């Protein structure tokens, strides 16, 4: 009887449990990739994603060190934990890549995005759009008698929520920059 209890309690170490514990849960991860700022690097990084069927939800790129000619690529992607690990490993093997950071697992980080949102409406819809813009701290950057263009910054969820509220009020167009992210703290 005690042998049975030991067997039940140690099932993860059992020779009969040889199947690895892979998760099928899709997770969203924000990756910061430091690369040489030279022609073709972005194409190689994007080629890694498209060639293996990985999805990119957001992509931003900018030079961050003019003297060192380094750029930072911020990619938001979704996959199982195993796929995310595979993406990071494959990114690290690309020659002009200097660093790959998974901001999602490395600790707290700050993510922001900028969006321009055009809303066309008259009367009460126009007044409601302005009221909601005030609540979301969106700024009017262009105005005509028929439309507004709002500028909003914040976490992607905030921008999604604002756009969803603008749809019934006359949402015409949305332009988004993609996520810019950085880790919190001194490191």
UniProtKB/TrEMBL annotation:
Pathway: Amino-acid biosynthesis; L-isoleucine biosynthesis; L-isoleucine from 2-oxobutanoate: step 1/4; Amino-acid biosynthesis; L-valine biosynthesis; L-valine from pyruvate: step 1/4. Its EC number is 2.2.1.6. Residues 30-105 form the ACT domain. It comes from the Bacteria. One of its GO terms (molecular function) is acetolactate synthase activity. Signal peptide: none annotated. It catalyses: 2 pyruvate + H(+) = (2S)-2-acetolactate + CO2. Keywords: Amino-acid biosynthesis, Branched-chain amino acid biosynthesis, Transferase. GO terms for cellular component: cytosol. Gene3D superfamilies: 3.30.70.260, ACT-like. Chain A, domain 2. Belongs to the acetolactate synthase small subunit family. Dimer of large and small chains. Catalyzes the conversion of 2 pyruvate molecules into acetolactate in the first common step of the biosynthetic pathway of the branched-amino acids such as leucine, isoleucine, and valine. This is Acetolactate synthase small subunit.
């Amino acid at each position: 009887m005690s042998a049975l209890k030991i067997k039940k309690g140690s099932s993860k170490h059992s020779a009969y449990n040889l199947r690895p514990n892979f998760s099928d849960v899709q997770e969203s991860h924000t990756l910061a990739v430091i690369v040489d700022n030279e022609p073709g690097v972005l194409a190689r990084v994007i080629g890694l994603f498209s060639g293996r069927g990985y999805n990119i939800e957001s992509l931003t790129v900018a030079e961050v060190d003019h003297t060192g000619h380094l750029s930072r690529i911020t990619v938001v992607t979704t996959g199982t934990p195993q796929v995310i690990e595979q993406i990071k490993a494959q990114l690290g093997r690309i020659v002009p890549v200097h660093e790959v950071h998974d901001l999602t697992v490395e600790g707290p980080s700050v993510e922001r995005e900028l969006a321009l949102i055009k809303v066309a409406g008259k009367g009460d819809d126009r007044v409601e759009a302005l009221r909601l813009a005030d609540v979301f701290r969106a700024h009017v950057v262009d105005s005509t008698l028929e439309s507004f263009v709002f500028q909003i910054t914040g976490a992607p969820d905030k921008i999604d929520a604002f756009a969803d509220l603008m749809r019934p009020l006359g949402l015409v167009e949305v332009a988004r920059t993609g996520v810019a992210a950085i880790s919190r703290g001194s490191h």
